[in-house]
Amino acid sequence: MNQQAKQVLAFIFKRSGKQTLPASDVYLAISMELQWCSPKQAKIFVKQAVNEELLIQNNHGVSPSFDIDNITIPTGFKPSKECFLTDLSAQSDTSEDNVISKVFQRLINKKNMTKEEINHSIETIAKEKMIEKSVAAIFLAKKMNCKVSDLIPHLKQI
């Protein structure tokens, strides 16, 4: 993680006025309130911050391991997307890939859609609704009247 990650964390804690926050408050602020990234990316970001000791985890939540007052946050601060993509590919789950590939097969077979059309639709839905690609894939399949009930248990594993 880099200086920008420290700025993100300092911003969140300065904004809250608290020295300790539940981890869920941190990732929800980053993803849902500020809409800087998806909830999954925000959770991974918080986990990495704990692993890299930028955040200290205790019984009450997490707190920065550095002095947030020494971090300069520019006016209109918005972190780059890359700040939240660190090691995201390493975190991807085979269950998620499995769900998406099954949806691809069903849509190609049943609806005669191309892989490009399916991928574009899934990415559009995921971005618009700020949901995971696997959930967007199931959403698309359901919308196209494909069977999805057998895929739901796989989502719970993701």
Spell out the key features of this protein:
mainly alpha; two-stranded antiparallel sheet; 58% helix; 2 domains; 158 residues; Arc Repressor Mutant, subunit A
What features would you describe in this structure?
The chain has a two-stranded antiparallel sheet with strand order 1-2. About 4% of the residues have low confidence. The chain has 158 residues and is mainly α. Helix 2 packs across helix 3, helix 5 packs parallel to helix 7 and helix 6 packs across helix 7. The protein contains eight helices and two strands; from the N terminus they run αααββααααα. A hairpin with a 2-residue loop joins strand 1 and strand 2. The chain has two domains: 87 residues, Arc Repressor Mutant, subunit A, CATH 1.10.10; 66 residues, no CATH class.
